[in-house]
Design a protein that fits this description.
About 50% of the residues lie in helices and about 15% in strands. With about 210 residues, the protein is of the alpha/beta class. Bound molecules: BIS(adenosine)-5'-pentaphosphate.
């Protein structure tokens, strides 16, 4: 399984990725998680990235692409991978194609998790994320069910930043639907249903 997950912020990409990883043991490559780890470590990259993330904007390509290349080269990604949050614009998609071609790897599909923006604002305002492992759940979860870590509200899940992220998605990431549609590898699921129902469709659409 070598797939790209597409969808607006809060569409449920991370949630569906977690389920695929648990069932199929492939690598979950989330650029959001990689960037948040860099912010937490206060690395030079993390300090630069934080400014863009807090503003609901994309982190510059040159900072993100290196992280993805490094992660794709790790052993667990050889079994398969789910790219969650990458690519985020056409330039990143072209870079990814070039990188995968060097590795002799083809994408099996690009899966769009489709959810209306009104639903998204509610979901993101009530989302909590594990400080240790990145697991996500609703506001009623205070201890991570996966690693017992502390659940917190991401800085960019505050109402003022959510709308900016949605605008960034519409202007920069949505064109990728056409990009992967043109390659004939785009599949779509309705993400506005219970998580397990969405997951049944995810597997069906991916032929799993
Ligand atoms: P990133 O971390 O990638 O955030 P995102 O794309 O905005 O996506 P989210 O993680 O917010 O949402 P999700 O779709 O994974 O939803 P989730 O499953 O958690 O990026 C953050 C920032 O980093 C960006 O803004 C940017 O600055 C930077 N960045 C990242 N990648 C970049 C790149 N490639 N280039 C440049 N910059 C980059 O679900 C959300 C909530 O809904 C949860 O609480 C969940 O429990 C709940 N939920 C999920 N599914 C359902 C369902 N079916 N029904 C009800 N509730 C559900």
């Amino acid at each position: 399984m070598k797939i790209v997950l597409l969808g607006a912020p809060g569409a449920g990409k991370g949630t569906q990725a977690q389920k695929l990883v648990e069932e199929f043991g492939v690598a979950h490559i989330s650029t959001g998680d990689l960037l948040r780890a860099a912010v937490k470590a206060q690395s030079e990259l993390g300090v630069k990235a934080k400014e863009y993330m807090d503003a609901g904007q994309l982190v510059p390509d040159e900072l993100v692409v290196g992280l993805v290349k490094e992660r794709l080269a790790q052993d667990d990604a050889k079994i398969g991978f789910i790219l969650d949050g990458f690519p985020r614009n056409t330039a990143q998609a072209i870079t990814l194609d070039a990188e995968l071609s060097k590795m002799g790897v083809d994408l099996d599909g690009a899966l769009l998790v489709d959810v209306a923006s009104e639903v998204i604002v509610n979901r993101l305002s009530s989302r909590r994320t594990c400080r240790s492992c990145g697991y996500t759940a609703g506001a009623d979860t205070s201890v991570c069910p996966r690693c017992n870590g502390e659940m917190y509200q991401r800085d960019d899940d505050k109402p003022e930043t959510i709308q900016k992220r949605l605008d960034t998605y519409a202007s920069q990431t949505e064109p990728l639907i056409e990009y992967y549609g043109g390659k004939g590898i785009l599949v779509k699921v309705d993400g506005d249903r219970p998580v397990d129902e969405v997951y049944v469709d995810v597997k069906k659409e991916l032929g799993l």
